[in-house]
Amino acid sequence: MRIDVVTIFPSYLAPLREALLGRAIDRGLIEVAVHDLRDWTHDVHQAVDDSPYGGGPGMVMKPQVWGEALDSVIGPVIDSPARLVVPTPAGRPFTQQLAHEWTSAERLVFACGRYEGIDQRVVDHYAQRMPVDEVSIGDYVLVGGEVAVLVMVEAVVRLLPGVLGNPRSAAEDSFSDGLLEGPAYTRPEVWRDLPVPPVLRSGDHAAVDRWRRDRALERTARLRPDLLAALPPDALDEADRAV
Ligand SMILES: Nc1cc(-c2cccs2)n[nH]1
């Protein structure tokens, strides 16, 4: 998978080259290119934004600059293997399911907006030619899309074959079965008078699996009842319903 990010703060994306993601790049599992939007300005001030039509606070990012940058980065959009992703608080929710969907994309191109967003005609123009996703990572407002891109790239790349040491990790994620993950424990057996639940040391794998499922159901019911309500009818068996 090739990932391109267009931003006015390229250094914000430096973490993409660290740790797990950095190793995925070194191993050739992904390619990452970060582009400075100002490289496509032609004025001495390298202006990337302007006042909003209709008035109102803040600034809107100019369509011309974005058009030149995305044409250059995406290349010919006919049959482009790229998806254009625009982080915005006014977008569809980014979910584990969407992360999984994007793992099949040959290319992801992220357009990082700042200020009050990017002139809508940029999305409208490219949406006529390729898949464009306006995506929110949560119901809160950031200053720019760069942090959202870090979140989404990590969530997608960790799902790619070979990236995680143990593929079971991605398969057993929170949300993989529609539930939140239950609690996890490691040594010591007792820590500050708090013991590890004995069933986890019993060696009875069926009992451990049941215990973990029960804790996941309890946690989901307590913290995310909406996830429980969204489960398909056959997702919970009789033992689940007894929790
Ligand atoms: N979920 C979300 C995205 C954003 C922004 C994207 C670009 C500027 S602000 N805030 N919150």
What does this entry look like structurally?
This protein has helices at 19-26, 63-74, 96-102, 120-127, 146-157, 167-171, 205-223, 225-230, 238-241; strands at 2-7, 31-36, 49-50, 60-61, 82-93, 107-111, 132-136, 190-191, 194-195. The chain is α/β, with parallel strands linked by helices and 243 residues long. Residues 87-89, 113, 136-138, 140-142, 144-145, 148 line the site of 3-thiophen-2-yl-1H-pyrazol-5-amine (J9N).
Structural key phrases:
single chain, 243 residues, alpha/beta, five-stranded parallel sheet, two-stranded antiparallel ribbon, 9 helices, binds 3-thiophen-2-yl-1H-pyrazol-5-amine
Detail the topology: elements first, then pairings:
Blueprint lengths: L1 E6 L11 H8 L4 E6 L12 E2 L9 E2 L1 H12 L7 E12 L2 H7 L4 E5 L8 H8 L4 E5 L9 H12 L9 H5 L18 E2 L2 E2 L9 H19 L1 H6 L7 H4 L2
Parallel strand pairs: 1-2, 1-6, 5-6, 5-7
Antiparallel strand pairs: 3-4, 8-9
The structure holds 3-thiophen-2-yl-1H-pyrazol-5-amine (J9N).
Brief account:
The protein has helices spanning 19-26, 63-74, 96-102, 120-127, 146-157, 167-171, 205-223, 225-230, 238-241; strands at residues 2-7, 31-36, 49-50, 60-61, 82-93, 107-111, 132-136, 190-191, 194-195. The chain has 9 helices and 9 strands.
Distance between the termini: 42 Å
Total helical elements: 9
Q: Which molecules other than protein and nucleic acid are bound?
A: 3-thiophen-2-yl-1H-pyrazol-5-amine
Assign the structural class, choosing from mainly alpha, mainly beta, alpha/beta, alpha+beta, or little secondary structure. Answer: alpha/beta
The residue ranges in which pLDDT falls below 50 over 5 or more consecutive positions are none
- Shape type: elongated
Strand-residue fraction? 15-25%
Quote the average pLDDT. 95
Topology, number of strands: 9
SSE pattern? EHEEEHEHEHEHHEEHHH
The spatial strand order of the largest sheet comes to: 2-1-6-5-7
Radius of gyration: 22 Å
What percent of the residues sit in helical stretches (DSSP H or I)? Answer: 25-40%
